[in-house]
Amino acid sequence: QVQLVESGGGLVQPGESLRLSCAASGFTFSYYVMNWHRQAPGKERELVATIASLSGSSNYADSVKGRFTISRDNRKNTVYLQMNSLKPEDTAVYYCNARNTDLGGDYWGRGTQVTVSS
Question: How many helices (H) and strands (E) does the chain have?
């Protein structure tokens, strides 16, 4: 059974940091591109960060570039999102996503709430 379980969300003040984790099980984690998406109230879901399956190369949305860092540990089947210098506009539900177009896999977690407010 495929599972993606996010953790680490919460309420922080502007300028503070959070580290999200996503623990994966039920599939071969190292074969999958891992993504973090977010969805704010009343807005469409947005791709925030992507990390390749083996090379570890990453890409970011312009809105988070320089502040967020995605990483993965293929031994622990876990992907992380380090979020620094958080802004109120980063408030959203953050979702972990595993994707492999060759294998046809596209899996999603249930999300974790991040709220940035003073």
Answer: 0, 11
Question: What distances in angstroms separate CA 1 from CA 18, 22, 51, 103, one per listed residue?
Answer: 29, 16, 23, 16
Residues shown for the chain: 118
> Binning pLDDT at 50, 70 and 90, where does residue 69 land?
very high
Per-residue pLDDT tens digits for 9-25: 999 999 999 999 999 99
Residue at 108: amino acid letter: W
Q: Rounded to an integer, what distance in angstroms lies between the CA atom of residue 40 and that of residue 114?
A: 10
Are the beta carbons of 111 and 95 closer than 8 angstroms? yes
- Spatial separation of the C-alpha atoms in residues 98 and 2, rounded to whole Å: 10
d(CA 115, CA 118): 10
